[in-house]
Prior knowledge:
Elements: E1 2-11, H1 18-29, E2 42-49, H2 55-67, E3 73-83
Antiparallel strand pairs: 1-2, 1-3
Amino acid sequence: MTVRARVTVYPRREILDAQGKAIAGALGRLGFDRVLDVRAGKSFEIVLSDNGGSVEEELGQISEQLLANTLIEDYSVELLESESA
């Protein structure tokens, strides 16, 4: 059995998101006037074997040790589906 998950990493609200600000500005110039804010981030899709341990806990450890710089970034974990291997 395998589990597919998505980890999304994004800058903390108190950290300036220069890329998000640039995207928001470009959207305004393109006529998308309703866009108030943009936060740019990274998304990782991870497939794990389900060996009976806590998948969420392991994904949290992966995120904190490798995917996110927890001083300036937050992350969220979303379990997508389980499949038979």
